Amino acid sequence: MSDAPSTVDVKPRKRKARRETTLQALPWLAPALILIGGVVIYPAGYMIYTSFRDITRFGTDRGWAGWTNYEAVFNLAHLPKVFLNTGVWVVGVVAVSIALSMVLAQFLNKRFPGRRVVRLVIIVPWAASVVMTSTIFVYGLDPFYGIINRLLTDVGLISEPYGFLKNATAGFFSAAAVAVFVSVPFTTFVILSGLQTISDDTLEAAQIDGASRTQTYWQVVFPMLRPALAVATIINVINVFNSLPILRTMTGAIPGYDADTTTTLTFKIIQADRQIDTASALSVINFLVVLVVIGVYLRVVRPMRED
Amino acid sequence: MRSRISDVLCVVAAILVALPLYWMVLSALKPAGEIQSADPRPWTFAPTLDSFRRVLDVQGFGQYFLNSALVAVLVVGGSILLSFLSAVALTRFRFRGRTVLLVMLLVAQMVPVEALTIPLFFMVRSVGDVAPAFGLNELGPLVLVNLAFSLPFAIWMLRGFVAAVPADLEEAAALDGASRFQFTWRVLFPLVAPGLVATSVLSFIHSWNDFLFARTLIYSSTENRTLPQALLVFYKPDEQDWGAIMAGSTLMTIPVLIFFVLVQRHLVSGLAGAVKG
Predict the structure, then answer these.
(1) Of A100, B42, B218, B265, whose CB neighbour count within 10 A is largest?
(2) Which domain holds residue A91?
(3) Sequence ranges of the domains in chain B
(4) B110, A125: Cβ pair inside 8 Å?
């Protein structure tokens, strides 16, 4: 009870101080915030707005549409298949990328001759444009002159060249492999930077305590990698979810929707059907799904300490 | 013994990663007859620069290269400056809504980009009526758009770096009579340099390889095209010029690789900023 007067005293002062620091921080933040607001947030708001309008194929706005665009999305016959594909695509590509990257990062963290060169080689798929990497794979998978087909037949894995990009299922999984290929470099480097925050002393201490290599990894190294894995997972989920060029380049020519994710479906609705309003509704749904997935991930895994 | 096996596996993985690159360069050097041969070979005895010549002969290739370079340099410079300022504000000032702002940045990162191309197109068109340099078919909006989309992650990444600089240092600098401005640019900026390097790599790749925005915003100008668009001429529905596509991809990848070689030493420690949270 005796504290009461002092709290009353302190609060306004604190609030005033806060307002002052907010004002001080503003000039530092303003350029970035104005830019992100204008180029990302405003168009995103416009996208949400469009999803509730009735817009013709020629761009004429015919007024309020209520939920009809969303109904149109949920009435698409191929939607369940596309949702399933999206789930497989995101979970599969991200999980495999992270697993491979953990192994690669462990290796690249050791000292060995030529490490710089190997690190540089691993970076290449990250440096190259995704459209071009996908194109290289289209060329390599060609049944007539593709080297990958040739290699697989020579090794005996397949008896004759196979048109990987001629049917939806094979095309989809080939594209997923390419998605892993382009995600691994960034993921590896993020995990590698996480590994470097672990000091040699920590590892030595584990060894002195008699921990085996496997034990050391899972009980000492892995928990310390949590923040790195979280960054890798979040960024990969966002990128893989919204990835358009790989599937577009590799399976875009296959008729039907069996190799589509929500992102490529959105693109098809814009390009082929010219239904901007329906496409906007689907994009909003897409965005909400990513938001929920990341939100749940942050809640469950709690990768970042609150500061 | 176990680690031997895993080392071998990793070398195999590294080779697998390198194969497409090798295949790209090799196909760029193969003579016309070998490129679509039914008997593809992983080597060539008659390397030729013909494919490269076809790429370089594309009308205005040099101009497109310069355009791409100009956009990339401006985006990198802008993202270093703006993400640094924001990261300082987000770590050194305690103000209301700081956490909300951080979450909003992450949300901005999640927006599906291709859906934004249509509103962006209309927006840039109306901006062009007022400021012609930032209208359609100009490089100005391309810089701003690529910059805006690379900022959220850059800020997240740098935040860890700025936070790692102890507050004592700032107090010591203040005692020595340094203003906040002096401290920020003379002390803080050099200290977070590795983080800035990693930021610049990401924004460089982002804008150099950008295809979507370039195609949306520079839809009819021939002189303001960027490199990825220039290479489109070799994509034809039925018969693609694989040699030229591979040569073009090789030429496009080289600048990014040079950039990586220059900053490689700082890349790993640079990403650590994001990882520290």
Answers:
(1) B218
(2) 77-301
(3) 1-48, 59-276
(4) no
Nearest Cβ partner of B274 from A196, A231, A270?
A: A231
Domain count, chain A: 2
CATH number at residue A132: 1.10.3720.10
Q: Do B3 and A181 touch (CB under 8 A)?
A: no
Q: How far apart are CA B17 and CA B110, in angstroms?
A: 28
User: Is A62 contained in some domain?
Assistant: no
The answer to whether the CB atoms of B118 and A238 lie below 8 A apart is no
The partner residue sitting opposite A39, judged by closest CB among B10, B20, B145, is: B145
Q: Which helix (H) or strand (E) holds A145?
A: none
Task: Judge whether A268 lies within some domain.
Answer: yes
pLDDT per residue as tens, chain A (307 positions): 344 444 444 556 666 666 777 777 888 888 999 999 988 899 999 889 988 988 888 777 888 888 888 998 898 888 999 999 999 999 999 999 999 999 888 888 887 777 778 888 888 888 888 888 888 888 888 877 777 887 788 877 777 777 788 888 889 999 999 999 999 998 998 898 888 888 888 888 888 888 888 888 888 888 888 888 988 898 899 889 888 888 888 888 888 888 889 888 888 888 888 888 888 899 999 889 888 888 888 887 766 554 3
Return the CATH number of the domain spanning residue range B59-276.
1.10.3720.10
Q: How would you label B74-87 residue by residue, b for 16+ Cβ within 10 Å and e otherwise? A: bbbebbbebbbbbb
Q: How many CB pairs under 8 A join A and B?
A: 257
Q: Which residue of A has its CA nearest to B147?
A: A35
Q: H or E element: which one contains A61?
A: strand A61-64
Q: What is the ipTM of this complex?
A: 0.84
Residue A53 parent element (H or E): strand A53-55
CA B255 to chain centre: 11
Q: Looking at chain A, which residue has its C-alpha nearest residue B274?
A: A231
Query: Which residues does chain A have within 8 Å of residue B20's beta carbon, measured at their own beta carbons?
Result: 125, 133, 136-137, 140, 181
| Token pair 């900026």 in the structure block, residue | B189
Which residues are paired to A55 by β-bridges? A61
Query: In terms of pTM, does the model score above 0.90?
Result: no
How many angstroms away from the CA of B176 is the closest CA of chain A?
Answer: 22
